[in-house]
Amino acid sequence: MTKAPEPRTPWTTADLQTHLSEGCGLRAGHILIVHSSMKRIGRVEGGPAAVVQALQQVLTPSGTLLMPVFTAPAADGLFFLLETPSHTGLLTETFRRSPGVLRSRHPTHSVAAWGGRAETLTEGHDRTTALGVNSPFHKAALAGAEVMMIGCGLTACSLIHVAEAIVRVPYLGRVICEGYHRTLTLVDSDGRRIELPPRDVPGDSKGFTVVQEELERRGLIRYVRVGSAETLKFSARACLDAAVEILRQDLAGLLCRNPGCPVCPPSRALVAEAGP
């Protein structure tokens, strides 16, 4: 993709709206999952709040915007629905704190949503798994959502983990990072405390490049630009279907090949142990 020249002044909300509507093809009523790097977007007049505003103005309240607002488990095991900040970037934290945004009730993999289907897509996350069947990103994919990776690749695409839950890979919830193996406490908006034991905790995503390669092979990724950020845009359902197909051919198909990775080699061993 040809790199656009940098402007002499910061990008404005109007610039970004043009990029999103004319360049990316976003329209009112669309459901959109966004993963992002604010640094890659570049200097924006009004900062990350202006980026959120541009997305909302293009989608309108009839559309729905979703972003991951994931968090690492706290030392005391407490997750405060209204207060615990997002660990997935400046734009996601700004979005989380924006008026009218809802946050799903999950202690490590919560999703923030705004717009017409925000409540429907975030509801019940505490009754399912982090990135499993009927989690917010899965429901969004089934509802026809599109995904935009603004300044990042598919190794940051959390939706792909849903494929691991659909196929029920042998390593799901068995090889996990430190801290995610224990029961956590969600403190709801009304102060109520809910104990949530670990269930199908997702693992590593460095191997997800194979999904990007498959979508590229099928011609299903559109390369666009938001601000200064190279951006990938594609159908959430097409991405999920491609990941499921890869796993049905090889249960270790989404694992990376780095022998130093703390997650993928033991996960691969579990696949081998499970057999064909």
Give the mean pLDDT. 95
How much helicity do the residues have?
A: 25-40%
Largest sheet: 7 strands, mixed
DSSP summary: helix tally:
10
Low-pLDDT parts are none
What is the approximate shape?
Answer: globular
Euclidean distance between termini CA atoms: 41 Å
Strand order of the largest sheet: 4-5-2-1-6-10-9
Structural class: alpha/beta
Element order, helices and strands? HEHHEEHEEHHEHEEHEEHH
Strand content: 15-25%
Structurally, how many domains make up the residues? 1
Radius of gyration: 18 Å
Beta-strand segment tally: 10
Describe this structure in a few short sentences.
By secondary structure, this protein is of the alpha/beta class. 32% of the residues lie in helices and 17% in strands.
How is this structure best described in words?
- The strands form 2 sheets. This protein has a 7-stranded mixed β-sheet with strand order 4-5-2-1-6-10-9, with helices on both faces. A 3-stranded mixed β-sheet has the order 3-7-8, with no helix packed on it.
- It has helices at residues 13-23, 38-41, 47-59, 90-96, 118-122, 136-142, 160-167, 209-217, 236-249, 264-274; strands at residues 31-36, 64-68, 78-80, 102-103, 111-115, 146-150, 184-187, 193-196, 222-226, 229-235.
- Helix 3 crosses helix 4, helix 7 crosses helix 9 (236-249) and helix 8 crosses helix 9 (236-249).
- It contains 10 helices and 10 strands.
- It is α/β, with parallel strands linked by helices.
- Helices cover 32% and strands 17% of the residues.
- It has one domain (13-72, 85-173, 203-274).
